[in-house]
Amino acid sequence: MTETIKTDCLIIGAGPVGLFAVFELGLLDIKAHVVDILDKIGGQCAELYPEKPIYDIPGFPTVTGQGLIDNLMKQIEPFGPVFHLNEMVAEVQNLGTPTAPLFRVKTNADTLFEARSIVIAAGGGSFQPKKPPIPEIETYERESVYYAVRKIETFRGRSVLIVGGGDSALDWTLNLVPVAKRVTLMHRRDDFRAAPHSVEQMRALVRDGAMDLRIGQATKLQGQNGRLEHVICRDNDGGEFAVACDAMLPFFGLTMKLGPIADWGLSLHENLIPVDTEKFETSVPGIFAIGDINTYPGKLKLILSGFHEGALAAQKVQRYVYPDRRVTFQYTTSSTSLQKKLGVA
Amino acid sequence: MAKIQFIDFGGTARTVEAEPGSTVMEAAIKNGVPGIEAECGGACACATCHVYIEPDWQEKVGAPSSMEEDMLDFAYDVRPNSRLSCQITVTQELDGLSVRTPEKQA
Fold first, then answer.
1. Cα–Cα distance for residue pair A202/A162, rounded to 1 Å
2. Which residues contact A95 (CB under 8 A, 6 or more apart)?
3. The complex's ipTM?
4. Do residues A50 and A324 make contact, with C-beta atoms less than 8 angstroms apart?
5. Domains and CATH numbers, chain B
6. How far apart are CA A197 and CA A174, in angstroms?
7. Which of A133, A165, A188 minimises the CB distance to B103?
8. How close B55 comes to chain A (CA, Å)?
9. pTM of this prediction?
10. With CB atoms 3.0 to 4.6 Å apart as the test, which of A33, A144, A181, A275 could cross-link to A228 if both were Cys?
11. Please, where are the H alpha helices in chain A?
12. A132 and B76: CB-CB below 8 Å?
């Protein structure tokens, strides 16, 4: 049985806004755990535009997505947040009362939390693999179509078609060639964005006859009872060809979906979570939403707005975590007690 | 201003006004044109603003850059006239441009 992790606050989303919430909560002695579905910290900044400059972070004329995340990580280090990456919050159960909230939270990896507050900083939602809109692809998702490799053994002795030209496609091609009966890599052009070294290795395997490379795009799946037999493909001159396979791995990158948040009993408006602008609390007391995922009159989807929202939400979280505390507002520039928490006094 | 026509998968055409210097994606989002998602907000990082350029316009619009080609790998049903609309800058020359949006972006 897994142990339940007790925490003052559970933050969902390790993007810039979730990270800065760790800081604002930390100043108020509120400890946080952070869950994110990606395998790395940084959310969209790290996944979508690590190298791209951002020009509207106050105090930084320019900073890259990854640069901002690195700085935030340095800033929140004194508060020792615990990260749970590669996990998505699946269930939220409300065990408390409106004045003393308590949530039981379970992730898709079966990690259990008991949290006195939840801050949803999930941006555009959770990153999930893009599914190519091939007709009837869902029929094959249980037994033949996979969007990620969880266990290499799943593919032992099978004829695998891998689709895509990025690092995921190439890495799994190289890793599955020794395991699978036959690996076919298909890409829409004979040019790959993946690391050149992997591309060279793949080309060598093709030359040695250890795998196949086809140029084209999948248009139709054929099989029976959810078991794939052929993938019908179109080459760039309009010709059709079939690839015999019983497993297919399409790698078309990631997209953002609201995901299970929709099932937690929160009021939603067009896939966004309405909040008030005093505490950024949702329709469920104790659950807050900050950053791109929330909505309110005048909302701007800016990182800096998310920072502000986190600061105000933290004040209300404090009321739940320390109901008897006399609240005095303090500045980091002058308060020795805040400076001690930051490790600078 | 330049007029840009978006024809959706079902064949419905919508024409919007676009300011020269902005992108075709921005014109779509600003006017609530369905079929363009632009998850990443125009950073050429998501391939959810994929469009097909109508044949008459292909030459004027030109070919994608290599960065855009790489990103098009994440789009579905890529054709020779595929472009990411966040990478097409509107000019007066493109007044009347017509593009089709795919069945699904992501």
1. 12
2. A102, A103, A104, A114
3. 0.83
4. no
5. 2-100 (3.10.20.30)
6. 11
7. A133
8. 16
9. 0.80
10. A144
11. 16-27, 43-47, 65-76, 167-176, 196-207, 303-321, 336-342
12. yes
